[in-house]
């Protein structure tokens, strides 16, 4: 035995002896300690290396860097399917590391950097590149595009901070080490600041520390391999290209002064003499469309405007006209799909300044010069100036609509564009006042329609919010465009202008918008009267598809207006036509994606003008349930009743065919369960199920609507109760019915009188005090005879069908043939015989 184990046993024996334990127990304990130590030595030999203790922070960071490395490889290969999986995996890992990030003071910069890189990849991916992708890759790209935008909104502050102070990571290992050493000597820092500097300034997967801590042996192997240093020439070329990209990104954000400095790296001297200004403006007009001089020309025009708007307003108006045209060309070249918001706002501001200088300052338009070689008159007129303003307005409107159709509705940019829409509407109101003064009737109708199109879908909730902001002096939007709170009167005045001066299609559109707004603002009777008197389906069906879509939207809003007032029958009439068609409801309302020529998808109707499809289905099925369930319960054994809602019956048949219906969860499940309780006359359970539907909150002032619908449920439940149990009672008290369904005595008697009058139930009311309803039941023999005749007819029809089926399969041997079919065969034979007979010869006729 070695001395090591002898010493171990002696020491243990010495320790155990004072306690008075036996010597046998001491020997057993010494043997156990020896076996434990030997097993530890064996285990240490199997490890073949020294164990490394890693903190939780280092472990989490190493895992994140491994995933980011895979993401960078997939970005280069444009493998969006795997990239999407890695993106989700990275976010899950970030959620697990929240405690570590809280201790360190926030998300690491290398994570924010990779989020920016993914977003840049998605945004810069062109339509031509997307065409080259496969089907799965294209779907993954669209999913990634939506998720990265939505996720980056949650860390917008971190991304903005990173963009303002980016950290370069394209340095080699030697440069990084030299930089860390220099900073350490200068600051005299300890190891902790050095670690922080490494975390902030390094994003390289080749870091020795993280390579050794990886669980993958192939990753640890890279630590022992020699790495080639990057070529200096390639590194310089990459730096030059990166500087160009940075300059281009910054130039799209800042003003024309800095943009010109970045693009040209020089400054120019501007003379404000009359001759030099005239020559320069002629040169700018002649060189319009040349991309090289575009930024320089805009820079010069901005300087001219700033100078002449204080000294010579007429010259400032001339330069503004040239500047707006240059800005439109520049915006089209920068963003081919739609103008970015900054370019759009610059064009809008210059157009508004141009209008105010002419209208408020009284600048005479006849003395303006165009500075064009091709213009022989070289001067403006009042008509030409107003036409220019209208063209600029239409350009702004078209580009804003394109932006609404292409921008995702959940982004901050979409909300900012909505404020731009109200500013544009304010400009249209100013132009409308100018056109009325000039008595330009055609353009008055045009501008009235444009303003109507921008505000007709606004409901009372938005107006109430704007009024609250105005009282607090926080409203940025002028309330004049909404009629100072009375939007219905404002829209009526606009429609009157269109009815006077507009063409046929514009009048139909304006009437549909008017009906839409009236129904939205709780004026259903007036909206319904205008709709019936002025518009017919035959007239609309012969017009363009867009007008038919607006017709469908007006119908839906009329249905909502009737539903809010508790008019169930009218609600069903308005919505049944749309929901009974085979097409998708979104297509009928023009709320689906439409493919463009470039391969992109966009909304035909902007999101802020759309109607929720689930709310339409909820209102329709609720109205159909209240009408169809009493109709079905009137007589369960007769199929001759008129079907009110075929779609609701299909819904009930689908659930009835299921062997097991679980607890209701969604809207359709709750409607079906409520219909079953309504058929029993149990209105309390029916109403409890209907209240669980979450779509109530999408209806304006839904609490008042619920009270009205609750009364309708009680009335229909009373009908179903009388239909179901009319053969179970000889008489029943009216007071009992009133208390059971919580209705007034007048309403209860009115419902009973109507049912008796239309023959729905056979009963009479006691003439003495009219407190009892006496049922006049049919004889049981008459009911059995009627049921027997119905069954016999069905059996005969089934027998005929079986015989025809057998005839088609094996012939008519041994089976009775239908007489009608035999007669038809004999008639056909006679016809064939008469056709085959030869006509008499001409000679026989002469004889």
Concise account of the structure shown:
By secondary structure, this protein is mainly α. It is 69% helix and 2% strand. It is built from 40 helices and 5 strands.
Distinct helical segment count: 40
What number is the mean pLDDT?
75
Largest sheet: 3 strands, antiparallel
Structural class: mainly alpha
Spatial order of strands in the largest sheet: 3-5-4
Question: What's the N-to-C terminus distance?
Answer: 152 Å
Unreliable sequence segments = 1-26, 40-49, 167-177, 188-207, 226-230, 243-266, 595-601, 813-817, 841-847
Shape: globular
By DSSP, the count of extended strands is 5
Beta-strand residue percentage: under 5%
Q: Could you tell me the radius of gyration in angstroms?
A: 42 Å
Helix content: 55-70%
Descriptive account of the structure:
This protein is mostly helical and 847 residues long. Among the domains are: 56-165, no CATH class; 726-804, Arc Repressor Mutant, subunit A. Helices cover 69% and strands 2% of the residues. It has 40 helices and 5 strands. The strands form 2 sheets. It has a 3-stranded antiparallel beta sheet with strand order 3-5-4. Strands 1-2 form a two-stranded antiparallel sheet. A hairpin with a 5-residue loop joins strand 1 and strand 2 (601-603). Helix 24 (487-501) runs antiparallel to helix 25. The protein is globular, with a radius of gyration of 42 Å. The N terminus and C terminus are likely disordered.
Question: What keyword list fits this structure?
Answer:
disordered C terminus; 40 helices; two-stranded antiparallel sheet; globular; three-stranded antiparallel sheet; single chain; 847 residues; disordered N terminus; Arc Repressor Mutant, subunit A; mainly alpha
């Amino acid at each position: 035995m070695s001395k090591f184990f002898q010493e171990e046993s002696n020491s243990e024996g010495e320790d155990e002896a004072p306690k008075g334990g036996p010597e046998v127990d001491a020997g057993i304990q010494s043997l156990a300690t020896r076996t434990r130590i030997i097993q530890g030595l064996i285990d240490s030999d199997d490890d073949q290396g020294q164990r490394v203790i890693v903190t939780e922070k280092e472990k989490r960071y190493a895992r994140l860097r491994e995933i980011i490395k895979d993401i960078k490889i997939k970005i280069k290969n444009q493998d969006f399917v795997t990239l999407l999986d890695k993106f989700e995996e990275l976010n899950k890992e970030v959620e697990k590391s929240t405690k570590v990030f809280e201790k360190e003071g926030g998300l690491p910069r290398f994570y924010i950097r990779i989020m920016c890189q993914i977003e840049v990849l998605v945004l810069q991916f062109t339509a031509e590149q997307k065409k080259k992708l496969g089907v799965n890759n294209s779907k993954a790209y669209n999913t990634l595009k939506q998720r990265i935008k939505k996720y980056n909104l949650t860390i917008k502050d971190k991304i903005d901070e990173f963009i303002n102070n980016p950290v370069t990571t394209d340095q080699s290992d030697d440069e990084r080490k030299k930089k860390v050493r220099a900073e350490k000597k200068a600051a005299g820092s300890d190891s902790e600041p050095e670690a922080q500097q490494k975390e902030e300034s390094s994003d390289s997967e080749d870091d020795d520390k993280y390579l050794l801590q990886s669980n993958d042996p192939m990753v640890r192997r890279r630590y022992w391999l020699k790495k080639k240093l990057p070529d200096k020439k390639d590194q310089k070329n990459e730096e030059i290209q990166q500087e160009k990209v940075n300059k281009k990104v910054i130039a799209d954000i800042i003003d024309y002064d800095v943009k010109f400095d970045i693009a040209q790296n020089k400054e120019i001297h501007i003379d404000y003499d009359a001759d030099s200004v005239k020559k320069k403006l002629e040169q700018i007009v002649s060189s319009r469309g040349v991309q090289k001089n575009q930024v320089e020309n805009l820079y010069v025009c901005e300087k001219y405007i700033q100078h002449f708007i204080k000294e010579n307003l007429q010259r400032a108006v001339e330069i503004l006209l040239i500047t707006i045209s240059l800005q439109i060309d520049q915006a089209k070249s920068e963003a081919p799909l739609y103008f970015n918001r900054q370019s759009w706002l610059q064009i809008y501001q210059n157009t508004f300044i141009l209008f105010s200088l002419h209208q408020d300052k009284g600048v005479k338009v006849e003395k303006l010069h165009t500075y064009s070689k091709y213009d022989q008159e070289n001067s403006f007129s009042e008509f030409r100036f107003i036409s220019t303003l209208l063209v600029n307005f239409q350009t702004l409107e078209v580009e804003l609509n394109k932006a609404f159709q292409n921008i995702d509705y959940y982004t901050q940019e979409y909300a900012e564009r909505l404020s731009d829409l109200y500013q544009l509407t304010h400009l249209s109101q100013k132009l409308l006042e100018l056109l009325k003064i000039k008595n330009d009737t055609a353009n008055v109708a045009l501008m009235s329609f444009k303003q109507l199109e921008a505000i007709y879908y606004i409901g009372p909730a938005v107006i109430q919010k704007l009024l609250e902001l105005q009282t607090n002096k926080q409203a940025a939007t002028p309330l004049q465009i909404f009629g100072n709170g009375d939007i219905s009167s404002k829209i009526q005045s606009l429609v009157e202008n269109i009815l006077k001066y507009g063409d046929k299609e514009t009048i139909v559109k304006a009437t549909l918008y008017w009906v839409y707004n009236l129904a939205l603002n709780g004026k259903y009777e007036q909206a319904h009267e205008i709709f019936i008197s002025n518009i017919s389906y035959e007239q609309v069906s012969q017009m363009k598809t867009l007008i038919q879509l607006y017709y469908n939207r007006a119908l839906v809003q009329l249905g909502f207006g009737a539903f809010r007032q508790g008019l169930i029958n009218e609600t069903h009439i308005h919505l049944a036509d749309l929901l009974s068609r085979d097409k998708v409801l979104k297509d009928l309302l023009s709320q689906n994606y439409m493919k463009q020529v470039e391969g992109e998808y966009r909304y035909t109707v902007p999101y802020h003008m759309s109607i929720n499809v689930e709310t339409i289905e909820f209102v329709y099925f609720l109205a159909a349930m209240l009408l169809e369930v009493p109709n079905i319960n009137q007589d369960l054994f007769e199929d001759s009743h008129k079907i009110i809602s075929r779609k609701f019956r299909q819904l009930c048949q689908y659930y009835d065919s299921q062997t097991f219906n679980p607890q209701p969860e969604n809207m359709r499940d709750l409607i079906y369960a409520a219909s079953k309780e309504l058929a029993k006359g149990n209105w309390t359970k029916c109403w409890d199920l209907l209240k669980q539907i979450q779509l109530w909150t999408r209806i304006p002032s839904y609490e008042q609507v619920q009270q009205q619908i609750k009364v309708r449920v009680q009335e229909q439940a009373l009908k179903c109760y009388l239909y179901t149990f009319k053969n179970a009672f000889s008489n029943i008290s009216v007071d009992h019915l009133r208390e059971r369904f919580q209705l007034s005595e007048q309403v209860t008697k009115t419902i009973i009188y109507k049912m008796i009058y239309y023959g729905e139930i056979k009963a009479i009311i006691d003439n003495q005090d009219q407190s009892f309803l006496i049922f006049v039941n049919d004889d049981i023999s008459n009911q059995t005879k009627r049921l027997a005749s119905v069954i016999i007819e069905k059996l005969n029809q089934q027998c005929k069908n079986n015989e025809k089926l057998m005839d088609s399969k094996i012939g008519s041997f041994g089976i009775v043939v239908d007489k009608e079919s035999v007669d038809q065969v004999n008639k056909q034979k006679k016809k064939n015989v008469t056709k085959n007979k030869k006509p008499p010869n001409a000679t026989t006729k002469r004889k």
